[in-house]
Every structure is written in C-alpha cells, then in structure tokens.
Write a structure and sequence with these properties.
- Strands 2-6-13-9-10 form a five-stranded antiparallel beta sheet, with no helix packed on it. The chain has a five-stranded antiparallel beta sheet with strand order 5-14-8-12-11.
- It has one domain.
- The longest helix has 9 residues.
- It has 277 residues and is mostly beta strands.
- It is 6% helix and 38% strand.
C-alpha cells in the first residue's frame, strides 16, 4: 500500500478542531497525503472574472506567487496568494487535472478528456484547510491583507462533463469565508456543499477532479503587501449532510494515487474501496 501511496479519507467525518489536521486525530489521513493531481492555474482576466459552469470566479489581478505546487497545499509547507496593491482586487487559483490548460477557462461549459488525471475520489462533499494572513501589511487585523472568499469543487460525470459546485455551507472552523483575519494567528475552515449539491454528487456518480479558490486582496490608500496562506488541506467525503466528529467514524474511503486517468475510471477500473475501522 505504501508503494501505491494510498490515501485514506474518513467517511462522513468533519474537522472541528485544529488538532484534527495532523497527529492521527483525523483517522486515515497522514501529513503529506493528497488526492488531487499536481496542476494549477493562477488566473487573471481582463473582464474581471471567468465563468465556470455558470459560476463567476472573480480574478481582476494575478498573484505574484505564480503557479502552486499542489502537493504543498496538503502539507505544512502550504501555498500562497500575494500582491502589492493600493486598491481592492480578487485573485483566483484553480487546481487539479486539466486546470493548467489554456482551454480550461475558455468555455463556460466544458468536458474533460480521457487523459486528464485525478485520484477519482467519489462522494467528495467538502473541505477543511488551515490558513493565515502572514506576509500581509495588516497581519494583526486591518484592511491590507488577503483572505479566502469562495471555494469550489470540480467534478467529472460519466460523460466527462465538468461540474463546478460551491462548498459554501460552514461545518466548523474559527473563521468564516469572506472574512478578514482579526489577528495574525492561524485559523481553519471546514465547509461542505449544499444539501442539494451533495445529492447531485451522489446521484450523478461525480468524481473529484480539482478545486477553485477565490481570494480578496484588501488595501489601504498606499500600495501594501496582501497575502493569504493555505496549508494542510483535507477533503471531506460522504453521501449526506450528517457529518460527525472523528471519534464516530466507522468507514474509511481508500483512494488511489492522484494521477489516475479519467478513461481508467470510465472503463470501470477499480479506483477506491471502503474499509471498516
């Protein structure tokens, strides 16, 4: 199993404590594990936004940190968005299979190709991630900082059609999306899809292909640094809204390495199994 780099994801479990991100307190996860292919796009659009399956992603300015090394999003190294700005901007990052292609944002309705890669995790319904605004001018509270505003999840269905669903329902965490950091300490988010979208993931047998992150870069009257950092990302899986704490978990989703091809999944290659714990 170690050679295959198998990922264990607790079923129907929420993260409601900072300490559940590591040290085995979130069963099945270990530091450095990932489920998303290492591709990313740092988006900027002259019109101010791009549309992905009818959802607008605002990105009128580009982060100076370039492309993300996606595996670092799943460990303590983390990833960042940064700019020196004298007025408010939005930045966006898309990660996962296909996102590095120029075609990913060219069409509001798009299809994956058979060679696009992922771990093919099914029933992905949310995320948890640790975060701070270190590197911002206002890292102790204030307007000249960056913060996470919106998170989406990209899927493929059995026809390779791309889906984009928002994880906008708070499950736990000591900060809300679209909120400034009150101080320089580390925070965490834990959000899931809406109830209707969780049903869509289940009923349409959607597999996780990637994620979208939209940030606000606030500003003062003079150009100052604004930065937001994300690290130790975790994916939540399940087929309903009744998420439980880690001590109640009774099933683990075992996901394959994050570079399986979509055509393997569509030809019924075994991608994941469940195991009792």
């Amino acid at each position: 199993m170690a050679e295959k780099k198998v990922r264990g994801i607790p079923w129907m479990t929420k993260i409601d404590s900072w300490y559940q991100f590591s040290d085995g307190l979130y069963p099945g996860w270990h530091p450095g594990q990932s489920v998303i292919h290492n591709e990313s796009k740092n988006i900027q659009d002259s019109g101010g936004f791009v549309s992905i399956e009818d959802e607008k992603w605002w990105c009128d300015a580009s982060s100076t940190t370039g492309s993300w090394n996606v595996p670092n999003l799943f460990n303590s190294t983390g990833v960042s968005t940064h700019m020196e700005n004298g007025r408010r901007h939005n930045s966006c990052y898309f990660i996962g299979g296909y996102t590095s292609s120029s075609n990913f944002t060219n069409s509001n309705s798009s299809y994956y190709f058979g060679e696009h890669q992922s771990s093919m995790v099914r029933n992905a319904i949310g995320f948890a991630v640790q975060s701070n605004c270190a590197g911002s001018h206002s890292d102790k509270g204030g307007d000249s900082q960056a913060y996470l505003e919106k998170v989406g999840m990209f899927y493929s269905d059995s026809n390779r059609k791309r889906w984009c669903l928002l994880a906008n329902q708070k499950v736990a965490g000591d900060i809300n999306l679209n909120s400034e950091y009150p101080d320089q300490s580390n925070k965490y988010y834990c959000y899931r899809l809406s109830s209707s979208n969780i049903a869509k993931v289940k009923d349409n047998n959607l597999v996780l292909m990637g994620m979208a992150f939209q940030f606000v870069h606030g500003a003062k009257s003079m150009a100052r640094d604004s930065q937001c950092n994300l690290f130790n990302l975790r994916i939540l899986v399940g087929d309903g809204t009744g998420l439980v704490n880690n001590q109640i978990t009774n099933r683990i989703l075992i996901a394959d390495k994050p570079d399986r091809r979509l055509d393997e999944y569509l030809s019924n290659h075994a991608m994941d199994i469940t195991a009792d714990v």
